[in-house]
Amino acid sequence: MAGKKTAGKKKAAAPKDATNALATIDMRLDGGVFVADFASMLADAKAYVKRFNGLTIASDDDLKAARGLRAEVNKKRTEFNRARLDLCHAYDKPKEAFVGECKKVLAVLDDAIDYIDVKIAERKEAMLEARKQLLADEYAGIAGDLASIIPLGAFIAREPKLAQIQWTPTKACNVLASMVAQAVSEREVIRSSELAFEADADRIYCEKLDLAAALAENKRLVAEQQAREAHIEANRALEVDLQSRADESSALASPHPAPAAPEPAADACFVAPRFTWSFRFVSTRKDAEAIAAFARSLGVESDGIKRESEAVS
């Protein structure tokens, strides 16, 4: 600052009467530094409030007096706090102006940084586009028929650094050539392995360029097929077993062929009555299902078998 600035009043002598405490508030700026006689002001404040110790309010007059005392203390507090705020404002005002001027200079520099960042980003984008074009030209020259099966993007996805400028163009092209050769070799492994799902395995390989993933896909599909075949075979065996049990039950129920029923008279209109029957038996569920199947083969109508309870041996 150009010179010393002084704000506020000089500190007065300590009041003799405690009720006049803090009559003078001594705080100021001296050469940009806060100066205050806090020791004296604190002593004055303590002396001032000491007379309120043991305050009692026993009547309406006491209450009125206490409210007056509170207003008096609050007034002193307001004056002291206002002096503090005024001094802080006097200190902050030149600081705010100073910060504002600094920000103008910083803004010029920030604009330059932003402009350079834009140019750097533009150059990076141009380099990335040039790298992609370089890889596309290189791939078309070395891949041959493979280019129509495996897109260049699959190689970049497998090794992202191909399309990044951290690698030199020469290194990127060399790595791409190595990956193409590896892809040709690993696809040959798939073809020569006589896989049950060769086409699916090759499809996964062309998507991911991962031989392990391709073989795992073949293994998964084989497991699914085996599970389906096992399920079909189990159902077929169950049907054969049920039919065999039904045939055995039929043979036990009719050991000899029943005699042929006489031909009814031409004018007979008699129809045999039908009844509802119940038949309780103890068996395994498998045997019960066989009995039910046999009954259906005889044309018996029913609601199906129902288990009542577990038999006690």
- Count every beta strand, where a strand is a DSSP E run of 2 or more residues: 2
Helix content: 55-70%
In terms of quaternary structure, the protein is single chain
Q: How many DSSP helices?
A: 7
Spatially, the strands of the biggest sheet line up as 1-2
Q: What is the radius of gyration?
A: 52 Å
Low-confidence regions: 1-18
**Shape summary:** flat
Strand content: under 5%
User: How is the main sheet built?
Assistant: 2 strands, antiparallel
* Alpha-carbon distance between the two ends: 111 Å
Structural class: mainly alpha
Q: Mean pLDDT across all residues, rounded?
A: 83
H-E order? EEHHHHHHH
Label this structure with key terms.
313 residues, disordered N terminus, two-stranded antiparallel ribbon, mainly alpha, 3% strand
Describe the structure.
With 313 residues, this protein is mainly α. Helices cover 62% and strands 3% of the residues. It contains seven helices and two strands. A two-stranded antiparallel ribbon has the order 1-2. α2 crosses α4 (169-192). The longest helix is centred in the first third of the chain and has 84 residues, at 60-143. It is flat.
